[in-house]
């Protein structure tokens, strides 16, 4: 005669982890696509001027930045406390601007080269003489579309 045994309570069933690698790779792919990397480390201190009528630039890939300001504290012993020009991640002079603009144009597609915009991010305490020198160098480099970056003015209450 056959014996019938009662099932012993063995606890909970194991969770199926077969789809776990798929989920991990989907999350990894999502964060890789949606994350933007910081392009430039600022070596100068830039406190932008404030303005009321601001327009946001539409296509960031067309914009080339020139930073002007006092060197950060870790660079002041080497470069002093006078306003300096930063192109990409290094300090530069006005004479370097033409080659910087030419290099930026070469990195763009041919269709976008004529649409290139140069944005000057200057400290509000920066002397206008440096900005004038930069504008003259940009004229020589045929970069005539110019933008000044500013912060939105906060209304006093």
Automatic annotation (TrEMBL):
Keyword Ribosomal protein: no
Domain of life of the native organism: Bacteria
Protein's cellular compartments: Cell membrane
Keyword Transport among record annotations: yes
A UniProt-annotated Pfam family: ExbD
Transmembrane segments: 20-37
Topology within the bilayer: Single-pass membrane protein; Single-pass type II membrane protein
Keywords from the UniProt entry: Cell membrane, Membrane, Protein transport, Transmembrane, Transmembrane helix, Transport
Family: Belongs to the ExbD/TolR family.
Protein name, as recorded: Biopolymer transporter ExbD
Organism listed in the record: Carboxylicivirga marina
